[in-house]
């Protein structure tokens, strides 16, 4: 048996493969994970990036879950061991046969062959749930909007795209709350970057005012140096300050107001992009896109910062 194991190990290592850069984007339902991921894939190009959603690893379809004492947020409702196995394979450059969950119909469908490219972006409810999954990633992000913002997003998405009524969405949010508290929110403490899209605290802005972003940059990875560009002049719409995380640890807090003018945003974007070196060209002009042609400067800077970390990890 040891001889057979050695033969298998030799066969696996005969053809060396390049290890991709792995990014996790975790968060509760309707926190903007897919919007953030789509922008990154578009900026990198589909030939260089692979994205998957770990919500595809649900054990049960929507009809079966109605009879269960827990929701899709509970680890017991997901094939966590298979998620761990597949993330390890992707992190070492190996393909996987990923299950597929159709959010429109609530059914499990035909699995999909996934080949890892230079960058693998993994989004979903539980990508940072276990020690083993966390070990697969180079960069980790947690999306943390206020509950009232997330509620609005979820109602809009689930009624327009998934066939739910408003009352059904609100009832499901209430049912999921204990599991959000127990399994989703604890992943926040494992993230290198915590992103919060929200109205500016203390301001009574009218409806429709673009959301601002607060990015908590933890010292678990090396972030681009923004002190120089943000200390020059009076940049009230974009600023960086030292803050305390919820557990008391010091973090850099980057604030990007929703009304930040494009010219101010461009200065910060170029400051981030230039730290990658002289051969990277200009920042992608596809960043920050919402539905249609609307652009969000907070979203654009968030996506650019993540692009910086993905490209920096290749060097």
What this model shows, in words?
It is a single chain. This protein is of the alpha/beta class and 315 residues long. 35% of the residues lie in helices and 20% in strands. It has helices at residues 2-13, 33-44, 62-65, 80-91, 131-134, 147-161, 166-184, 227-230, 262-274, 297-312; strands spanning 21-27, 49-53, 96-102, 107-114, 119-124, 139-143, 193-198, 212-217, 238-244, 250-256. The strands form two sheets. Strands 2-5-1-6-7-8-10-9 form an eight-stranded mixed sheet. It has a two-stranded antiparallel sheet with strand order 3-4. A hairpin with a 5-residue loop joins strand 9 and strand 10 (250-256). The two termini are 40 Å apart.
Helix/strand structural class = alpha/beta
The rounded distance between the terminal residues' Cα atoms is 40 Å
Along the chain, the helix and strand elements come as HEHEHHEEEHEHHEEHEEHH
Rg over CA atoms, rounded to whole Å, is: 20 Å
The total count of helices amounts to 10
Strand percentage lies at 15-25%
Question: Low-confidence runs (pLDDT<50, min 5 residues)?
Answer: none
Q: For the residues shown, what is the average pLDDT?
A: 90
Number of strands: 10
The major beta sheet can be summarized as:
8 strands, mixed
Overall body shape: globular
Strand order across the largest sheet: 2-5-1-6-7-8-10-9
Helix share, percent: 25-40%
Keywords: Transferase
Domain Phosphoribulokinase/uridine kinase: 23-198
Protein name: Phosphoribulokinase
InterPro entries: P-loop_NTPase, PRK/URK
């Amino acid at each position: 048996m040891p001889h057979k194991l050695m033969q298998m190990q030799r066969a696996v290592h005969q053809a060396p493969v390049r290890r991709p850069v792995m990014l996790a984007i975790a968060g509760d339902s309707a926190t903007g994970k897919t919007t953030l991921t789509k922008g990154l894939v578009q900026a990198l190009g589909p030939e260089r990036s692979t994205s998957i959603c770990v919500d595809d690893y649900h054990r049960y379809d929507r009809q079966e879950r109605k009879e269960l004492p827990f929701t899709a947020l509970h680890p017991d409702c997901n094939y966590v061991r298979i998620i761990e196995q597949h993330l390890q394979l992707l992190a070492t450059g190996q393909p996987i046969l990923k299950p597929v969950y159709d959010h429109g119909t609530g059914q499990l469908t035909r699995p999909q062959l996934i080949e890892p490219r230079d960058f693998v972006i993994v989004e979903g409810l539980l990508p940072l749930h276990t020690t083993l999954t966390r070990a697969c990633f180079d960069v980790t992000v947690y999306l943390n909007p206020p509950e009232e913002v997330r509620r609005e997003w979820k109602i809009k998405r689930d009624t327009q795209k998934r066939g739910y009524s408003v009352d059904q969405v609100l009832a499901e949010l209430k049912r999921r709350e204990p599991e959000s508290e127990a399994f989703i929110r604890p992943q926040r403490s494992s993230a290198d970057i915590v992103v919060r899209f929200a109205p500016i605290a203390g301001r009574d802005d009218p409806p429709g005012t673009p959301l601002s972003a607060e990015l908590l940059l933890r010292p678990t990875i090396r972030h681009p140096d923004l002190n120089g560009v943000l200390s020059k002049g009076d940049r009230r719409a974009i600023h960086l300050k030292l803050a305390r995380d919820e557990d008391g640890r010091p973090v850099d807090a980057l604030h990007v107001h929703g009304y930040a003018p494009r010219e101010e945003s461009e200065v910060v974007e170029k400051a981030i992009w230039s730290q990658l070196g002289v051969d990277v060209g200009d920042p992608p002009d596809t960043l920050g896109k919402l539905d249609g042609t609307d652009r969000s400067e907070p979203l654009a800077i968030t996506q650019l910062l993540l692009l910086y970390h993905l490209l920096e990890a290749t060097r």
